[in-house]
Amino acid sequence: MTLTQMRHAKLWFAGQAANWPLAAYELDELQEGMQDAATFHPTHKDAPLPVPALIEKIMKDPVQQLEKAIAARDAGGFAQQFDALTEACNACHRATNFGFNVVTKPSVNPYSNQSFQPPQ
Ligand code: HEC
Hints:
Layout: H1 2-16, H2 20-40, H3 51-71, H4 75-95
The structure holds heme C (HEC).
């Protein structure tokens, strides 16, 4: 989940910079990471449903909506759908009895060694 957290932050800053190819890439990587979690941790001791089922149920719709906003280069839609995605992360944390772990939209970019601006 630490990688997921990194992708989640980078996705936000890519969208903020209107670097849509980077945003698309980060969203793709975020999904791959969650697929790996589903493959390597198909069950979680505290989860009421198997992890792959939880990902499918909770994340599919927000991810698809975000993909649409990115494809449309829609900054307003991106911001809105990013919040929906973040809420879905937290919904899964609650579903896995991990609700004390709350993720939020990042306020400060911790990646000072990467430019999020679209290259000129
Ligand atoms: C399938 C359910 C599920 C989804 C979806 C999910 N998480 Fe998690 N997350 C967990 C579980 C379970 C843990 C507890 C850690 C463990 O046992 O591996 C966790 C832990 C975390 C942690 C704590 C890591 C640490 O060690 O501090 C962060 C941060 C996190 N998730 C971020 C996210 C973000 C961001 C998203 C959405 C992009 C997300 N998670 C989506 C289930 C999920």
